[in-house]
């Protein structure tokens, strides 16, 4: 799923693509700060906050209108949830059915346990063709595994063809939104990137390029056309895979995907194992909910479907790389596995007050926003400081759950993952557990509690502004002012 909103103002960003972070693995980049530190910087950027607010509010308002057109939206949402849950419960069976159908249709299926194996498979397949360049459709899975960087290390250049991804690539940048990766760039910045960098990657930008959407789109069209006509190999992801027929589905707004899927001789698709759906009837549900939740359209301008290979029509060689990379581990978690329902619509990002203020780069992950806060720590683990901080990148307001077209209870999973992070221990968590244990002992003894309350009230003038050892809480919150007497004493004097 892709979308580009050149008409929206953006904001400058100093974040850059960190190829080493995902080159061959899904681990966090040790050079990137944890969410609290990264967000602390971004929330003080008034221009960033203003433009993010404008962009996300525009998208979510359009989505609300599109969803309101369907009287049975709640039923579609519930149907999507049930289809995804049923598929995940029997994922092994549907994946084997998919492999059999793809193979019978002339395709070849490869299984990749992790990012390194997926990158190695794709690299070897491209080498077999003798080509040194490929065109790519926007794909979260290939971003997740750092495929572009892995190919570059082997002397293979990958050209992004989605307009927003092209902007990110030419700007040596990093995506900041699932649907609109270049949402952090304004039109003036895009014009400058095209003017300064297009010539390094192929056809240069036209002379006198302006920042009007039509001119920018035309510059991208001319730049990409020569690549489409020359490319012999394409790399894609997929929004869905239909197990009963081995059909893959890509939905998009620009037509670049259609060019990649039809013109090259070899097509390699890297897809997470959770993207499978059992039947065409199941697919019909998501073809209604995905476009409305993402681009606020009744249907996508381009919905491309292909099943294996067909003589004289499209690529003559098709390879499907099924990616695990932490998904099986996520599936084993009864609470956390609901994150695998995600259809990458990005609706949760557009309603999230934290994302609106912090922006996508602060998450340090290919998957930003609320869904990234629960998906990334499960795919990568919570060992790094970055990943351990993501479950706390939320106010738990629940807006993300309300708009999710497959009813992922993101707040529930966030709390679940916070518990997992806390269970790992550390000095702060040990102190917290000790404090809770002591509080439990006091609350079980009314007399001790009453004596403690009286002592606290009598000594309130001596209380510190911050509780020792609780700086993470009190640094951003004021302690409540201690009243002159406890409620217990007030009740005794006035109600007895």
From TrEMBL:
Q: Where is this region: Disordered?
A: 1-33
Pinpoint the Lactate utilization protein B C-terminal domain residues.
Answer: 420-494
The record's annotation in InterPro entries points to: 4Fe4S_Fe-S-bd, 4Fe4S_Fe_S_CS, FTHF_cligase-like_sf, Helical_ferredxn, LUD_dom, LutB/LldF, LutB_C, NagB/RpiA_transferase-like
> What is one Gene Ontology biological process annotated in the Swiss-Prot or TrEMBL record?
lactate metabolic process
Which one of the record's GO molecular function terms can you name? 4 iron, 4 sulfur cluster binding
Which intervals hold domain LUD?
97-322
Q: Which UniProt keywords apply?
A: 4Fe-4S, Electron transport, Iron, Iron-sulfur, Metal-binding, Repeat, Transport
The record's listing under SUPFAM superfamilies reads:
4Fe-4S ferredoxins (SSF54862), NagB/RpiA/CoA transferase-like (SSF100950)
Task: Tell me one Pfam family matched here.
Answer: LUD_dom
Q: Has UniProt tagged this entry with the keyword Repeat?
A: yes
Q: Which residues form the 4Fe-4S ferredoxin-type domain?
A: 339-408
The record's annotation in PANTHER family points to: LACTATE UTILIZATION PROTEIN B
Protein's recorded name: Iron-sulfur cluster-binding protein
